[in-house]
Amino acid sequence: MATKQQYEQLIEQINANYEKLTEFQIEDLVRENELGSQLSFKDAESTIIKTIDLFNRAKTVNYEDVPYNLLNNFNNQLKAANDRFDSFKSFNPNQNNPVNQRDSLITQLDNQYDGYYQHTLPILTVGLLSGNDLSVQQAKIDQLVSDLDKKTKETEKKGEEYLTQLDETLKSAEEAAAKVGVSRHSQIFNTESTEHERQSKIWLKWTVGVLIAIVVAAIIFIFVFPDTTSSSAEIIQFSITKVIVLSAMFYGLSICNRNYKAHKHNATLNKHRQNALSTFETFAKAAGTDAQTKNAVLIEATHTIFSNQQTGYLNSEKDNESSNKIVEIIKNVATNKE
């Protein structure tokens, strides 16, 4: 068994060989710029890189854990690699048959690489088993798993946030669509109310005009009458004419008045329906999650829209039977939802 002093001496030799190995540059060993493509060691470049990389992997191993014989063999291979690289650097292109000499050096390096690998592998294995490489790798794996779990949770959280935003957007879109629908139907009643109001003003003017015409005609008829020389037939004819004219004018007055009241009634009724729809959304929101209150508001709004409300402009105002049937249907639907 080797002594501690022998280990220390061998490790010093290994470190010295490593220092020399680090001095080699790939360009200095290939020497393509110096020797040209015909005599350079370009064909050995890949083997040179593999050799240097192989020995560098074993550089971090704790050599005290490696058996002395294995470590000594490794040192010999490391020294042999340095010697081979020295031969590349000292190659003289002016010697006899330089191409064969160059090819021989490349072949020797290729053949020696297997030995480099065989004697370096035990060093790497000892370093892997005795060092903290496994625990380090396990720690890295655990860290990766932890990071992956963290990212997964973050992704799930973001996904939930996106779903919440989508739900809110969908709800807002539904509310906007409902508002648009309510506003659209409210606008329909507003248009109808405006049109009937315009027609009522026209018929009011006709009513006033006909009434003025009746007054004027009555005044004229007071001062216009047959003279004393008129016969009885002429007087009767004149009287009948006045009655017919005044009756026709009163009939026209009644028609104008009836049309005025009808249009005014419809204008007021549609305005009331518009107001009911315009305020429906406010009362529905005020009810919150109370379905019973919402149903009550819906039924009342439906009753206001589909029933024939009294406005005072018509003499006989009764609710339409079909309107009551519609309200009953809405009531049944609301009850079933509960």
TrEMBL record:
TM ranges are 203-223, 235-256
Q: Which UniProt keywords apply?
A: Membrane, Transmembrane, Transmembrane helix
From the Swiss-Prot or TrEMBL record, give the protein name.
Answer: Uncharacterized protein
Q: Which organism is it from?
A: Pontimicrobium aquaticum
